[in-house]
Design brief:
The chain is of the alpha/beta class. Helices cover 36% and strands 19% of the residues. The protein is built from eleven helices and 13 strands. Helix 4 packs across helix 11 and helix 9 runs antiparallel to helix 10. The longest helix has 17 residues. The protein is globular, with a radius of gyration of 19 Å. The two termini are 18 Å apart. The N terminus is likely disordered. InterPro entries: ChyE-like, Class_I_gatase-like, GATASE. This is Glutamine amidotransferase domain-containing protein.
Length: 327
């Protein structure tokens, strides 16, 4: 199914036009050390071989692709899992300088997560396709990707800014009219909830920051294999109601819906598995300087920023979700 079909405008929620290649970072950023197709399928091997053969015939291997569908594997045996990262924000300056955009931050997390999959992870190759959905409002064609990940953001998921309305409508159509698996993190979690009819808004409990405990529900315990998770948090908004047909994965004292799940369709978390002490400390410091956080909240959050967390475990489970969906 192509994005051109998904992006037919509607009267109430006009969607962005088909993405222009010049506006998106379409380079295939592959995980170091990954090889093989990890059981994703022999058909992709054939497709990869055909793409490489055609590319060699054109003698243009050094050219950047003009569309995600032209991404090439380096050998016929390597057919990467193509993950579209919808970047909904830009990291704070020091994080951007040291780690790159949020697509690059998630590449680091997911590379680490593959190591947690044991033998199954050793056979997986993947590439990140970054789409700026805020400034350029570019979106992937679903025939060109194997999965979608929506990042966090300083923006508010229940606002009606044009780019947010477009993102909500795009995700609604992906989830209801395709089989492309979607993962949402923090803001992305709330976008998924809103797209499927949940109420989103300010959390009565206020800000939840730094490493916090998430108590998992029965389905969450089955999914992650533990009774609770320690994860970085950075939010004061929430998904307040559970969309029909979805499972709530867990809760915390300040946030009763910490994750959404539907097998072979979607997985979302209010927390930030991609954060570490450096990222958290930089955000805390900036928001303290902006007087978003008072001194007490700043000291409390900074004291817990370096606590151990389960980001790697969550990353491995994200991979299991994606690979089980496309198997």
């Amino acid at each position: 199914m192509s994005l051109l079909w998904l992006c037919q405008p509607t009267q109430s929620h006009p969607l962005p036009p088909r993405p222009k290649s010049a506006a998106a970072d379409l380079r295939c950023e592959k995980a170091p050390g990954a090889a093989g197709n990890g059981g994703i399928g022999a058909m992709r091997k054939v497709a990869a071989y055909k793409r490489i053969k055609a590319s060699r015939q054109r003698k243009s291997l050094k050219l950047l692709p003009t569309s995600p569908r032209h991404i090439k594997s380096t050998t016929p045996d390597m057919s990467p899992f193509r993950l579209a990262v919808l970047e909904c924000d830009t990291p704070v300056p020091n994080v951007l300088k040291e780690r790159g955009s949020y697509g690059s931050v998630f590449q680091r997390l997911l590379t680490d997560g593959l190591h947690g999959l044991g033998d199954r992870g050793k056979g997986v190759d993947f590439c990140i396709l970054k789409y700026d959905v805020v400034q350029h409002q570019t979106y992937p064609e679903l025939s060109d990707v194997d999965g979608i990940l929506i990042t966090g953001s300083k923006h508010t998921a229940f606002n009606d800014d044009p780019w947010i309305v477009s993102l909500v409508e795009y995700i609604r159509q992906v989830l209801t009219a395709s089989k492309t698996p979607v993962v949402g993190i923090c803001f992305g979690h709330q976008i998924i909830g809103r797209a499927l009819g949940a109420t989103t808004g300010r959390a009565p409990g206020g800000w939840e920051v730094s490493v916090e405990k998430v108590d998992l529900c029965d389905q969450g315990q089955q999914l992650f294999g533990v009774s609770s998770l320690q994860l970085h948090q950075m939010h004061r908004d929430e998904v307040a109601t559970l969309p029909e047909g979805l499972v709530n994965l867990g809760s915390s004292p300040r946030c009763p819906i910490q994750g959404l799940y539907k097998p072979n369709s979607l997985l979302s978390l209010q927390a930030h598995p991609e954060f570490d002490d450096f990222i958290m400390s930089e955000i805390m410091t900036m928001r303290h300087s902006q007087r978003i956080f008072d001194d007490e909240m700043f000291r409390d959050g900074m004291a817990r920023a370096g606590d151990s967390h389960d980001g790697r475990l969550v990353s491995a489970k994200i991979w299991e979700f994606f690979l089980d969906t496309v198997a």
